[in-house]
UniProtKB/TrEMBL annotation:
The gene is gatB. GO terms for biological process: glutaminyl-tRNAGln biosynthesis via transamidation; translation. It comes from Desulfitobacterium dehalogenans (strain ATCC 51507 / DSM 9161 / JW/IU-DC1). Belongs to the GatB/GatE family. GatB subfamily. This is Aspartyl/glutamyl-tRNA(Asn/Gln) amidotransferase subunit B. Keywords: ATP-binding, Ligase, Nucleotide-binding, Protein biosynthesis, Transferase.
Length: 481
């Protein structure tokens, strides 16, 4: 890659969070039996006409504002004509000529560098149906069925400029985009359910040139990590093609997660969609006053929230970035902070224990039984010396799995920290007697020996002894002797 650079543009399809479809009253609920949420309008039956869902326009406008876009005061829908089994009308209602939002941008950080990625447009459109393949993918299947439940579900398609230069930048862009859409309530952005889907247009060109190379479009990527890996593979593949003296073919390629490669799906040379305005649907006129009303509903977005955590609560930039990476996590952090006003301690526990357990159990935060108030109570017990930090981690695991109150767990398990010097004296006497070499080392100036002895006391008390008290008592005893 020293002689080539990657040129990457992303097309992100985002399902809007509405209860009904774009032009009909059919439900958008996920996971229902195939073809049970359809009507003549979303099936494209002859003579059927639809009515625009106003909520779609509101959410699309809100998304555009959050993405720093200009909003078109006059916009309309167009027909994008092509044939595919999942498109019952033979055309898709989209916005080709006059998108509702355009000329936006996102600021990202990748590989230690800050970069602005410009957004060409964000436009409304209807989702086609869904092909259900007999095999693992379209390339390995002998047949496919069509589920039209998704047909007519409202989307916005967010198209970036081809300014992304690596898989890492693409992943950072998608993570930032997902967080903004989640914060605004525009979409639930569940990639596993298809409410956020990404296609990547990838080409390469010699470093120092400006002409665009032949691009391929990559599909079937079901995670941000998959997007990054697919782009990295495709860039390497195209370099190898050119180095072998061949030409890159403009085509659609699918990502095979198991093999870690892209596979050719179909040729895409100069597609002609014969687009024209859909005159059966009226133009949409948005007043500046209405646009400002929508702007007023925007919440505190990730960048502003991260800045607040750094400036008002003294969190390191890294911690603040983690805390604001998703809306659920940011809300959890803020709720805990209201009850236990030590931002750094809370972020340490969230990053060290909560995220560890969520990853280990492959769970979302919304599925966890631990609450912000429960975490705050636990940290208060540790701060007061009722339990040690080590015991606190054991209690937290029980809170996570059982949802119990930390005080209840401590009481039931008898985990109260031993700070009484009378209780500790005999234990320390036994430990000192059993470890004469460590005692001798400490008395001869080897400071680290005290740590070993404290560890033995903690082991003997199953972590319940107060390590600070133990350290002080040991020093007093060994210094006198």
């Amino acid at each position: 890659m020293s002689t080539y650079e990657a040129v990457i543009g992303l097309e992100v399809h985002v399902e809007l969070k509405t209860q009904s479809k774009l032009f009909c009253g059919c439900s958008t609920e996920f996971g229902k039996e195939p073809n049970t949420q359809v009507c003549p309008v979303c099936l494209g039956l002859p003579g059927s006409t639809g009515v625009l869902n106003k909520k779609v326009v509101e959410l699309a406008t809100k998304a555009g504002l959050a993405l720093n876009c200009e909003i078109g005061t006059t916009t309309w829908f167009d027909r994008k004509n092509y044939y595919y089994p999942d498109l019952p009308k033979g055309f898709q209602i989209s916005q080709v000529f006059r998108p509702i939002a355009y000329k936006g941008y996102l600021d990202i950080e990748a590989d230690g560098q800050n970069k602005r990625i410009n957004i060409t447009r964000a436009h409304m459109e209807e989702d086609p149906g869904k092909l259900v393949h007999s095999g693992g993918s379209i390339t390995t299947s002998h047949s496919s069925c069509v589920d039209y439940n998704r047909s007519g579900i409202p989307l916005i398609e967010i198209v970036s400029e081809p300014e992304i230069r690596s898989g890492a930048e693409a992943k950072a862009y998608l993570e930032k985009l997902k967080a903004i859409l989640e914060y605004t309530g525009v979409s639930d952005v569940k990639m596993e359910q298809g409410s956020l889907r990404c296609d990547a247009n990838v080409s390469i060109r010699p470093v120092g040139t400006t002409a665009l190379g032949t691009k391929t479009e990559i599909k079937n990527m079901n995670s941000f990590r998959a997007v990054q890996r697919a782009i990295e593979y495709e860039v390497e593949r195209q370099v190898a093609v050119l180095e072998d003296g061949d030409s890159v073919i403009q085509e659609t390629r699918g990502w095979d997660e198991n093999k870690g490669i892209t596979l050719s799906m179909r040729n895409k040379e100069n597609p002609d969609y014969r687009c024209f305005i859909d005159h059966e649907l009226t133009h949409i006129e948005l007043t500046p006053e209405w646009i400002e009303e929508v702007r007023a509903t925007l919440p505190e977005l990730p960048d502003a929230r991260r800045k607040r955590l750094v400036e008002e609560h003294g969190l390191p930039v890294y911690d603040a970035g983690i805390m604001t990476s998703s809306l659920d996590l940011a809300d959890f952090f803020d709720a805990a902070l209201r009850k236990f006003p030590d931002a750094k301690v809370i972020s340490n526990w969230i990053m060290g224990e909560l995220l560890r357990l969520l990853n280990a159990h492959t769970m979302e935060l919304s599925e966890a039984k631990v609450t912000p108030g429960g975490l705050a109570k636990l940290l208060e017990l540790i701060k007061k010396g009722t339990i040690s930090n080590k015991i606190g981690k054991e209690v937290f695991e029980l809170m996570f799995s059982e949802g119990k109150d930390p005080e209840q767990i401590v009481k039931e398990k008898g985990l109260v920290q031993i700070s009484d010097e009378g209780q500790l004296t005999q234990i320390l006497t036994d430990i000192i007697a059993k470890n004469p070499k460590s005692v001798e080392d400490f008395q001869s100036g080897k400071e680290q020996a005290i740590g070993f002895l404290v560890g033995q006391v903690m082991k003997a008390t199953k972590g319940q002894a107060n390590p600070g008290v133990v350290n002080t008592m040991l020093r007093e005893i060994l210094t006198k002797n």
